[in-house]
Amino acid sequence: DTEVTQTPKHLVMGMTNKKSLKCEQHMGHRAMYWYKQKAKKPPELMFVYSYEKLSINESVPSRFSPECPNSSLLNLHLHALQPEDSALYLCASSPDGDTQYFGPGTRLTVL
Amino acid sequence: RKEVEQDPGPFNVPEGATVAFNCTYSNSASQSFFWYRQDCRKEPKLLMSVYSSGNEDGRFTAQLNRASQYISLLIRDSKLSDSATYLCVVNLAGGYQKVTFGIGTKLQVIP
């Protein structure tokens, strides 16, 4: 089973709201990732967690805050976002740091 | 020069045709190579890993040419359902590091 789940599927939020995106996998993968994807562009890496530790932060603004409570869960906390942050947010996991399996994504709209 | 380059297309081909995409990468030390498929407004899905010896999965064949630093994807007997964007993905460093996505090649199979 190569399933990564993400909730919610869609999210609309105002610029003053605080919300969280959730990602879950039960494949025992030790690397988990957050990506942002805008229309007609490839996914853009935001964060990498390896063995539950943040190993890569691609200079993401602090209004995005990742959290890895355990090896199966990855959250992305959102606060004071801008309309240009509207995008598809993808979570992925990997057993080996190479092959990545993506969740269906959360489509975020910031008003 | 971009780290991973692809022709964005679109490639418009008739059903039953054979189509090939190439992807070039800049770092000769790159370790791992993949093709992903992404349908409109969906997540990327792993199509196949690419090995030096080449690999085949049904109508799909992937090749790696380390000397010329490119990978290729050949699709035989194209189906309407093959219409998608094909993303070339390269792990430049190996291990639990970021992978780099090409911009993707859009394929449209027409009846």
Task: Count all strands of chain A and give the number.
Answer: 11
- N- and C-termini, Cα separation of chain A: 37 Å
User: What is the overall pLDDT average of chain B?
Assistant: 93
Number of helices of chain A: 0
Return residue spans of chain B where pLDDT drops below 50 for at least 5 consecutive residues.
Answer: none
Q: What is the helix fraction of residues of chain B, given as a range?
A: under 10%
Largest interface: A-B, 24 and 23 residues
* Percentage of β-strand residues of chain B: over 45%
With helices defined by DSSP (H or I, 4 residues minimum), what is the helix count of chain B? Answer: 0
| Rg of Cα set of chain B | 13 Å
- Described by the principal axes of the CA atoms, the overall outline of chain B is globular
Strand content of chain A: over 45%
Cα distance, first to last residue of chain B? Answer: 37 Å
Q: What's the multimeric state?
A: heterodimer
Order of helices and strands of chain A: EEEEEEEEEEE
Largest sheet of chain B: 6 strands, mixed
Derived structural class of chain A:
mainly beta
Coarse morphology of chain A? globular
Task: Describe the 3D structure.
With 111 residues, chain A is mainly beta. Chain A contains no helices and eleven strands. In chain A, the strands form two sheets. In chain A, strands 2, 4, 5, 6, 9, 10 and 11 form a seven-stranded mixed beta sheet that branches. Chain A has a four-stranded antiparallel beta sheet with strand order 1-3-8-7, with no helix packed on it. In chain A, strand 7 and strand 8 (73-79) form a beta hairpin. By secondary structure, chain B is mainly beta. In chain B, 0% of the residues lie in helices and 54% in strands. Chain B contains no helices and eleven strands. In chain B, strands 2, 4, 5, 9, 10 and 11 form a six-stranded mixed beta sheet that branches. A five-stranded antiparallel beta sheet of chain B has the order 1-3-8-7-6, with no helix packed on it. Chain B is globular and about 40 Å long. The A-B interface holds A 30-31, 41-43, 45, 48, 50, 55-56, 58, 88, 90, 94, 97-105, 107 and B 31-32, 34, 41-46, 49, 87, 89, 91, 94-99, 101-104.
